[in-house]
Amino acid sequence: MNELLITELVLRNVFTDLQPAEVAALLSALVYQVKSKQDDNELNENLTKPLVEGKRIIKEVHKEIQDLEMKFEIDKVSEPSRDLNFELVEVVYEWANGHPFATLMNLTEVQEGIIVRCIQQLNETICDVRDVARLTGDPKLYTKMEEASASIKRDIVFAASLYTQNEHVQ
């Protein structure tokens, strides 16, 4: 997770005008770290205008952070900011809006298990942002993060498994 990027996005109120499903979808770009096989423009085809704009802003803030890290040689002292991958934005958006898992598989070539793991990790990130909202006294963002978490915590993705631990499920 890129804590610095998330902090900047929260402090710049990037999530203020977005719906919970849109916030969850955009945050997936920070969680999903597999190299994308798709062209970035292909990934915009089915996105809503708020998602396209949110994606643009996140990329812009991420670039600012990377430029500062390079300028001050921060990557030599600590972990450099990680790359973004927007490949699962549409998948997470549809999942958060209540679509069945089976329909998500028509949207991507990413394997089912990877999607499940990404959404589980995404919930951890959403809960971290929720905690930041509580600490900064932002009840609207707190509520939005609660709603975003609730929207992705369902069905097969959060079903008990013999293979995964439930300690990440809140």
Automatic annotation (TrEMBL):
Residues 1-164 form the ATP-dependent RNA helicase Ski2/MTR4 C-terminal domain. InterPro entries: RNA-DNA_Helicase, Ski2/MTR4_C. It comes from the Eukaryota. Coiled coil: none annotated. One of its GO terms (cellular component) is Ski complex. It holds the Pfam family DSHCT. This is ATP-dependent RNA helicase Ski2/MTR4 C-terminal domain-containing protein. It comes from Photinus pyralis. The lineage of its organism: Eukaryota, Metazoa, Ecdysozoa, Arthropoda, Hexapoda.
